[in-house]
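Handout, page 2. Input:
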Amino acid sequence: MLMNTDFVRNSSERSGSERVNDPLSDVLELVHARCGLSGRLIAGGVWARRFANMDAIKLCAAIKGTCWCFMDGMGEPARFERGDVLIMNGTRSLILASDPNGISEAVATPLVQDDDGNYRLGHGDEFVMLGGMVHIQDRRQFLLLAGLPPLIHVSGAAPESANLSWLLEHIVEEMGSPVRPGRSVVMAELAQLLFVQTLRAYLTRAPAADGGWLKGLGDKRLALALARMHAAPSHLWNLDDLAHEAGMSRTGFAVHFRQVMGTPPLTYLTSWRMHLAARDLRAGASIAEAAEAAGYTSESAFSNAFKRTMGVAPGRLRKAAGEDNLERVSESTLNAAVDVI
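Output:
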């Protein structure tokens, strides 16, 4: 049987030894996550603003001064200082203010843009912040959104933040005058590195109370099992095998995995397989090829698992991907997969 070349390449890439221990890269590559900087905010005097929910992943990096940040669900406002980075998953509004007492009065007032293209609040420049947004392929956006807590706050003073300070310094340098050759490319790569390095710093000490499955990638025991699942998704893993990889008892592993990831281990594995299968089907793989890559010897069993997880039959998804004018499978239809990956 002739194999689709794009599908073969994707399958061989997934089996490469260089990716054995990197589930975070697997997820970011699957959703095509790319961070881009959208502007600079300069604020001074007395000010407060609510940044409305945009159903997207946003990033804020303080490069001068201090303000206060708050989001529903936080016990109290937190200081947002030079070198700190925030990542929001877009489910709640972020409030920034010069004084914590002004947070309750914050509204989403229009931002004023000056002659240099900077956005301004209040009067003065005691606080300066870079803003950015993570662009994700529409069909897969919910996958990463579900993995993140509402707010990630990484302190620039933390030991694991040394790389963030270096990146922010170089971003500020690149934004200055004169414009150097290749600036747009350099800025794009620095912004992407800032996003990924912030996630890495967060994973070293993610709070246990945080929601989202991303924190599981920073759990030393679970990371071992997750890496093996991502390295060989078609392998016939069972609970005993995965517990052994994590160095835990079968029961201890199952309980700990569910507590951290919010779903049982084998349910997570099935969902990851189906997301990979969806990508392969959109790339032109046949149902038989996608089933084999996911570890299924029966197309019928694969189709049932795919529809149960993704909310749509694999044949319909494949057909929709191949017809430009066919109505897209709605994001709400695919939301059935959010809770298990």
